[in-house]
Automatic annotation (TrEMBL):
PROSITE patterns linked to this entry: PROKAR_LIPOPROTEIN, SEDOLISIN
Catalytic activity field: Release of an N-terminal tripeptide from a polypeptide
Single GO cellular component term: extracellular region
Keywords: Calcium, Hydrolase, Metal-binding, Protease, Serine protease, Signal, Zymogen
GO molecular function annotation: metal ion binding; serine-type endopeptidase activity; tripeptidyl-peptidase activity
Protein name: tripeptidyl-peptidase II
Primary subcellular site in the record, as a coarse category: secreted
Lineage, highest ranks first: Eukaryota, Fungi, Dikarya, Basidiomycota, Agaricomycotina
Organism from which the protein derives: Dendrothele bispora (strain CBS 962.96)
Record EC number: 3.4.14.10
EC main group: hydrolase
Any one Gene Ontology BP term: proteolysis
Positions annotated as active site in the UniProt record: E289, D293, S488
């Protein structure tokens, strides 16, 4: 069967007095060449206004990272004692010195229209004329067009900040970011190969019909996922929705009636709006991606309260609200314990400073006790689908390379093999975290030094971490049955497993799972002592960039990670 792929803002309180702009000694902060997917149409009208955000240096992100690992690592005395919003703020807010220095510069430069923004007041938002932006940042902002979509962007290839503010300003955004976020929509017509060698066989295998159509019943059989309802109302599961994609209540009802008849068909989800996001209903509003994400959370994490986080177009973060949704959840009093996202872009599309800033925003959320799962991508080692690899080097996906969440790859078939589109590899921005050392070095040693030499960063953060089914997944969209494929399927499925484990941990009075629980000590020792905690995937690869990609092997690999979930064994490894 063929499968179709699928602010919180605080206003500045001072009344600013305009003054004569001062000339400052400037230091180049960022510079880049124009991506081949864009072209310039020249300077915008000098009166055109643009929204920019200045990222202020935060007090102690290294200390917050240590706190994150302390509350996430089972061997730590602080395990499970996640931080409150106010406790995180102590680390993540800018110093008074930083705020005063930057706001003074803005005032003395004649910029009076600005506001503090972000959950920790770690950004300053400004709205200024393009000509003023050129002057303020010693830049040359131009109008650029994305060739494929025709979308227009005002960007610059270089900008500077005053030399005396380098320690206070991390970046200005959007300046050199040329991003058009894409939905992780898998390829059309995905075949399921009948391969006999190196297959993982297990006692709880699903019916052979699940080779052609994956349903909740298939996943329950494959992974041992229980159908009994969760009992802890405090345990919540968040689902991201971007690009004006809506999840249909009527489609969910039809899905549950057909594929989860043991559940009340009226089971529904709540909605959290970010940037004016909506969740419009009706056949003309339906979308396969949003329906997939909701149907395979509500329909797998039985009884877990699910919230659809819909991100609208009233944003100025220039990455589709990607940063705004993290900030919005950081501002929540009680964010969901598990959050799944099926969207992303290529790591090369943004500069390393912005990538680190976004990743640190994930870290602040993780320190508050949120396990963040993201789909790894659908282009094999080439990142997004049908990517031009240019020099031939592999293209890591983002945010899959960020070390503060769990990236999910895809498998296919009853006797599971790696799905060929499952993105994976090694980040060029983030170094390998300590919790990956044993698993990843074991794989690299087996791969050998000569294989793909120079095409990937052997010391980078490796992804994905784990995997789940991602081919021929049955959904209902627009009232019709559809079959979809991609890591967009895999992330909500695995997030549902984590939510159900958390439900049982909370009921037992134990700390629930957090990133980086997948590989953190001593949980990793439990995994390798008991390999059935995950079903190891031994066959398949993720081709791209003119290569066969990375092969799946025993243990962790950059196609399926540690493997797919074994619910009962994961419960045992988690202490139940």
């Amino acid at each position: 069967m063929a499968a179709r792929i699928l602010s919180f803002t605080v206003l500045a309180s001072a009344i600013l007095v305009a003054c004569t702009p001062t000339r400052w000694s400037m230091t180049v902060t960022e510079q880049r060449t124009l991506p081949i997917t864009f072209f310039s149409t020249g300077k915008p009208d000098s009166e055109t206004k643009i929204d920019l955000r200045i990222a202020l240096a935060q007090k102690n992100m290294a200390g917050l990272e240590k706190a994150l690992y302390d509350v996430s690592t089972p061997s730590s005395a602080f395990y499970g004692q996640h931080l409150s919003f106010d406790e995180v703020k102590v680390y993540a807010e800018p110093s008074e010195e930083t705020v005063n220095a930057v706001t003074r510069w803005l005032q003395e430069s004649g910029v009076s229209d600005f506001e503090m923004s972000g959950p920790f007041n770690e950004w300053i938002s400004i709205n200024i004329q393009a000509s003023k932006a050129d002057e303020l940042f010693d830049a040359s902002f131009e109008q650029f067009v994305h060739i494929e979509s025709g979308e227009h962007f005002i960007r610059t290839l270089q900008y500077s900040v005053p030399q005396n503010l380098v320690q206070h300003i991390e970046l200005v955004h959007p300046t050199t970011a040329f991003v058009r976020p894409f939905v992780k929509r898998p390829v059309m017509s995905v075949p399921v190969p009948r391969i006999a060698r190196n297959i993982t066989k297990r006692a709880n295998s699903a019916p052979s019909s699940c080779d052609d159509t994956v349903t909740p019943a298939c996943l329950q059989a494959l992974y041992g996922i229980p159908s009994t309802p969760a009992t802890q109302s405090s345990n919540k599961l968040g689902v991201s929705g971007f690009n004006g994609l809506f999840a249909e209540n009527a489609d969910l009802k039809t899905f549950l009636t057909k594929l989860r008849p043991d559940m009340p068909s009226m089971t529904n989800f709540t909605v959290l709006s970010v940037d004016g996001g909506q969740n419009l209903q009706g056949v003309n509003q339906t979308d396969s991606e949003a329906n997939l994400d909701i149907q395979y959370t509500v329909g797998i994490a039985t009884g877990v309260p699910t919230v659809f986080i819909t991100v609208g177009n009233n944003n100025s973060d220039s990455i589709g609200g990607f940063l705004d949704v993290i900030n919005a959840l950081n501002a929540e009093y009680a964010p969901p314990q598990v959050w799944t996202t099926s969207y992303g872009f290529d790591e090369r599309d943004i500069n390393s400073t912005l990538a680190n800033r976004i990743c640190n925003a994930y870290m602040t959320l993780g320190a508050r006790g949120v396990s963040i799962l993201v789909s790894s991508g659908d282009g094999g080692v080439s990142g997004g689908q049908s990517q031009d690899c240019g020099t031939g080097a592999f293209i890591p996906a983002f945010p899959g390379g960020c070390p503060f969440h769990t990236a999910v790859g895809a498998t296919q078939g009853v006797n599971e093999t790696a799905a060929f589109f499952s993105s994976g590899g090694f980040s060029n921005v983030f170094s390998r975290p300590w919790y990956q050392d044993y698993a990843v070095t074991t794989y690299l040693d087996a791969l050998g030094n000569d294989t793909y030499a120079g095409l990937f960063n052997r010391s980078g953060r490796a992804f994905p971490d784990i995997a789940a089914q991602g081919v021929n997944v049955e959904i209902v969209s627009g009232g019709l049955v559809d079959h979809v494929a991609g890591t967009s399927c895999s992330s909500p499925i695995f997030a549902s497993v984590v939510s159900l484990i958390n439900d049982r941990l909370i009921a037992a009075g134990k700390p629930y799972l957090r990133n980086p629980w997948i590989l953190a000590k001593p949980f990793s020792r439990s995994l390798y002592a008991n390999p059935q905690a995950f079903f190891d995937i031994l066959n398949g690869s993720n081709p791209g960039c003119g290569t066969d990609g990375f092969p799946a092997r025993v243990g962790w690999d950059p196609v399926t990670g540690l493997g797919t979930p074994n619910f009962e064994a994961m419960l045992k490894a988690a202490g139940l």
